[in-house]
Amino acid sequence: DVVMTQSPLSLPVTLGQPASISCRSSQSLVYSDGNTYLNWFQQRPGQSPRRLIYKVSNCDSGVPDRFSGSGSGTDFTLKISRVEAEDVGVYYCMQGTHWPPSFGQGTKLEIK
Amino acid sequence: QVQLVESGGGVVQPGRSLRLSCAASGFNFSNYGMHWVRQAPGKGPEWVAVIWYDGSNKYYADSVKGRFTISRDNSKNTLYLQMNSLRAEDTAVYYCTRAHPRIRDLDYWGQGTLVTVSS
Question: Mean pLDDT across the stretch B78-100?
């Protein structure tokens, strides 16, 4: 199975400052159709996960443009350009290229 | 708007069975693959199973293979998860999720239903 490794696991950030979360996979996430099935999810306290980004860098509808995704192969990054209070929660990367789909351990973002 | 509403969770003894349901609305259910994902208390999500839009393909996590069965009734816009031989380690919130734009992309998640396996 593909192992997804996130860092850091805890991310204290000052309001208005940028934040970056890394996600590495144990195998390349490029699928035979040429797509890379790497998603990012946000889980606010007490809520279900919400997808922010799919296929590495595509933002879902309604997601603030301060969120962006990048990367290729086995190394991926979620960036928040200016952290706001509503961004507090746990962020997960997830790969769908290889069965079974697998999630990272999660990165807990908190306000400093 | 897309809505996924899970039901059927509860407290069950080890070795017993439970069936979860997920009622879908706000989209053409029969056109989408669907997944079940679970999250144990204080842990990250764990993928459980997937079913193609027409039920033609199903895949399971090794941890539930042979015990859980995913199915769907497109006439009722409902996804199911039949869980047999439940174990303590199956305790989790179970979410149904829609696959979009491809079967390998999970977008909308329901609010989840809690399954607790305990004697």
Answer: 97
When the pLDDT of each residue in chain B is averaged and rounded to a whole number, the result is 97
Please answer whether residues A31 and A97 qualify as being in contact, where contact means their C-beta atoms are separated by less than 8 angstroms: yes
- Whether residue A94 and residue B101 make contact (CB cut-off 8 A), yes or no, is no
Closest CA to A7 of A81, A78, A97, A102: A78
Q: Which residue from B35, B61, B105 is facing A55, i.e. has the nearest CB? A: B105
Mean pLDDT of A12-35: 97
Q: Phi and psi of A89, rounded to 5°?
A: 155, -165
Determine the Cα–Cα distance for residues A11 and A50; give it in Å rounded to an integer. Answer: 19
How do residues A26-63 score in pLDDT, each as one tens digit? 999 999 999 999 999 999 999 999 999 999 999 999 99
Q: From B107, which residue of chain A is nearest by alpha-carbon distance?
A: A51
8 Å CB contact between A105 and A11: no
Q: Contact, A72 vs A56, CB < 8 A?
A: yes
Which whole-number Å values give the CA distances from B73 to A23, A52, B21, B101, in the listed order?
37, 29, 10, 21
pLDDT for residue A42: 98
**B75-84 average pLDDT score:** 98
**Is B33 strand, coil or helix?**
coil
Q: Pull the structure tokens for residue B44.
A: 């990250």
Chain A: give the shortest CA distance to residue B109, in Å. 7
